[in-house]
Design a protein that fits this description.
single chain, 106 residues, mainly beta, Jelly Rolls, 4-stranded antiparallel sheet, 7-stranded antiparallel sheet
């Protein structure tokens, strides 16, 4: 798990979705890769996200319930774990606590 990113460019305008329940910032690394650093606030209903590229989502803190479009099961991910989502698909996340994450855009 990453503890910090050195020599990055941060887009200062956040991506805000679901009335502020999901907030993230895009960072660009020296090698050209892009990531988002974000937070999901507790939700009563799952938040649905669409991907354009494949994504690896690392959970930094908290616990969330994830359902991917290609899987009927709801999976639980906690601090130190990650899940992947294919390009051009949908997934949902829900949590009863604050979740911090890093999304590696591939």
């Amino acid at each position: 798990m990453s503890s910090q990113f050195d020599a990055v460019t941060v887009r200062i305008k956040p991506n805000i979705h679901y009335k502020g329940r999901s907030i993230s910032y895009v960072i660009e690394c020296q090698d050209g890769s892009k990531k988002t650093l974000g937070v999901i606030l507790p939700t009563e209903k799952p938040l649905i996200f669409e991907t354009h590229v494949s994504e690896k989502i690392e959970i930094i803190s908290g616990k969330c319930f994830v359902q991917r479009e290609d899987n009927e099961n709801i999976e639980i991910y906690s601090s130190g774990e990650f899940f992947t989502v294919p390009a051009n698909s949908r997934f949902s996340m829900q949590s009863t606590e604050v979740v911090d994450y890093i999304c590696h855009l591939e």
